[in-house]
Design a protein that fits this description.
The chain has 18 helices and eight strands. By secondary structure, it is an alpha/beta fold. The protein has two domains: 137 residues, no CATH class; 227 residues, Spore Coat Polysaccharide Biosynthesis Protein SpsA, Chain A (Alpha-Beta Complex). It has an eight-stranded mixed β-sheet with strand order 3-2-1-4-7-6-8-5, sandwiched between helices. α8 crosses α14, α10 runs antiparallel to α12 and α13 packs across α17. The N and C termini lie far apart (63 Å).
Length: 454
């Protein structure tokens, strides 16, 4: 107790004389105020620009690209692990593209599969390579293996560009045609519009889905409008063949290989484009256990990217390269700052109780205001995304509105997830089970049926 009293006495001498607004605050409460002020100011300085992105997205229509000849040769690459239920629908949607099928080759790596993934891919006409490696586990290693096989076969230079998909994806019929337009506009890396198969299932799938809709419309889209670099978001992206050759295939093996690849592109001066008209659907996790595991991997992967690429991006940001700064903010999770504030406020509450024998109303208010502010910010962001993407949300509209109120809660769960990832020594890549075998028409019809019932 004497130690705590000594610490408090020190802060009383240092801090209280400078606190003029409310001199009745004790030293612990004053420390809490300054921590809240500092983190709030830092957070605002780091992320206020995203509200400018939001403004741009609301006042400027998404960028459309001019038609170009459909004469580029593409290789579709798919890493699949035990995806026999959903993979056939992706392959069917590729074969149903408006782009000439004679210029599209499909490659599938059946990675550590114990089901019929390889067989159903072969039956659909894909070129299949099977991989069994329990030591090097993850999508990055599977892609590296697949590109090695392509190099040994036709060679990496056989294709103008490569299209990357996950096995649970389903494409709009004009997806590749639209990506080809963006490719013809000069982008060497392009990402697409990411929608969900199962928006209305529950608050978890809706949380993912609404975030990805917001990311597409209110982050990727304004980046493209302003001539900045977008960011690869997991799946549905195109990479120019020269970049694959430069990298010797696939060389990104961190837990978030998509973000790692984006950071590498930015450091090489390759701007990532965005094609709003190229839409795909994927299946989102539906249980909190799956979601926790997946987002913990994402959070750990972000920390890995910071460790490996943060120095280069910071150097670029200091040289006033906007894409470097934007990417720094993308890989430096806002939830880290939020976690620091939450931990600090909680610790100060405990310290105040130990020293003064009471729970400070001031610190309790700081903690409550932090949570209310976080909920409010995400509610507003979710609301704007819901309204702007209303016609692309394929579930009952009343249910979509109801799920808006759980979106902030979904996002706030990133705080304990980020903390768990930060303090975990090892986070392993584990597949997410996919079971919704749906076409794009099935997804749209599900939304229509729900609307008619209401």
């Amino acid at each position: 107790m004497r130690f705590f009293e000594a610490v408090v006495g020190f802060f009383e001498k240092i801090l209280l004389p400078s606190w003029e607004i409310d001199p009745s605050l004790n030293a612990v409460e004053t420390v809490g105020f300054y921590i809240t002020l500092f983190i709030g100011t830092l957070f605002t300085l780091c992320y206020a620009y995203q509200f400018f992105y939001l403004f741009v997205a609301c006042v400027v229509k998404p960028k459309k690209y001019k038609s170009v000849p459909m004469d580029q040769r593409y290789a579709v690459v798919i890493a699949a692990r035990n995806e026999e239920r959903v993979l056939p629908l992706l392959l069917a949607s590729i074969k149903g593209q408006t782009y000439p099928l004679s210029l599209i080759d499909i490659y599938v790596v059946a990675d550590n599969c114990t089901d019929r993934t390889a067989a159903v891919a072969r039956e659909a006409g894909a070129r299949v390579f099977e991989r069994q490696n329990k030591r090097l586990v993850g999508k990055g290693y599977a892609l590296a293996f697949l590109f090695d096989r392509i190099r040994e076969g036709v060679g990496l230079s056989a294709y103008d560009a490569y299209l990357f998909f996950d096995a649970d994806n389903v494409l709009r019929a004009d997806f590749i045609e639209q990506m080809n337009k963006a490719y013809g506009a000069g982008y060497r890396v392009i990402t697409s519009y990411r929608n969900a198969k199962n928006y209305g299932k529950n608050w978890i799938s809706a949380g993912y889905a609404l975030w990805f809709l917001r990311e597409s419309r209110h982050l990727q889209n304004p980046r493209a409008t302003l001539g900045c670099s977008a960011a690869i978001s997991g799946t549905g992206f195109l990479v120019d063949g020269s970049i694959i050759q430069r990298n010797g295939g696939w060389k990104h093996f961190l837990l978030t290989e998509d973000i790692e690849f984006t950071a590498d592109c930015i450091l090489h001066g390759d701007r990532v484009g965005y094609c709003h008209e190229a839409e795909l659907f994927d299946e989102q996790p539906e249980t909190f256990r799956q979601s926790w595991r997946q987002r913990k991997r994402w959070a750990k992967g972000m920390f890995q990217v910071i460790r490996h690429y943060g120095g280069g991006l910071l150097s670029g940001a200091l040289r006033l390269r906007w894409s470097s700064f934007d990417m720094m903010m993308n890989i430096t999770p806002a939830f880290v700052l939020s976690s620091v504030q939450l931990i600090a406020n909680s610790a100060l509450l405990l310290l105040n109780w130990i020293v003064y024998g009471t729970l400070s109303p001031t610190l309790l208010n700081c903690l409550a205001e932090f949570l209310i502010f976080g909920y409010g910010i995400f509610f507003v962001l979710g609301l704007v995304a819901l309204l702007s993407e209303w016609h692309r949300i394929h579930c009952s509209k009343p249910r979509a509105v109801a799920l808006l109120f759980t979106f902030p809660l979904f996002m706030l769960t990133y705080i304990p997830i980020s903390l768990a990832a930060f303090f975990s020594r090892r986070v392993e890549w584990k597949p997410v089970e996919h079971k919704r075998a749906m076409t794009a028409e099935d997804i749209e019809n599900a939304g229509r049926v729900s609307k008619n019932r209401n």
